[in-house]
Amino acid sequence: MERNPNVTYGEMLNRLIRNISKRNRMIFFYFAIYTIAASIYPFFSIIMPKLLISELTLVAGASLNKILIITLGYFLLTSIFGFIRTFIHDLAYPMITKLRIDYLRDVFDKIISMDYKYAEDANFLEENNRAMRAASSNDVGIEGIYHKLFESMAIFLTILALTIFIGALNLWILFGLILNIIATVYINNRVHEYQYEMKGKLGHAERRKNYYYKTTHDFGYGKDIRIYSLKDRILSNYNKEIENLVALHRKIRNKEYLLGFLGLGTLLISSSLTYGILIYMAFNGMTIADFSMYLAAITNLSLLMKSFADNISFIISEGRYVRDFYEFLDRNLGGSGGHRGPIENDTLDIEFKNVSFKYPKTDKYIFKNLNFKINKGERLAIVGVNGAGKSTLVKLMTGLFDVTEGEILINGVPIKEFSKKALYSMFSVVFQDVNILAFTIAENIACSSDNLDRNRILTALDRVGLGQKIKNLPKGLDQMMLKVIEEDGVEFSGGESQKLVIARGLYKDANMVIMDEPTAALDALAEAEIYENFSELVKGKTALYISHRLASTKFCDKIILLDKEGIREYGSHDELIKKKGAYYEMFTIQGKYYNQGGSKDEAYAEA
Question: What pLDDT is attached to residue 259?
Answer without folding.
Answer: 67
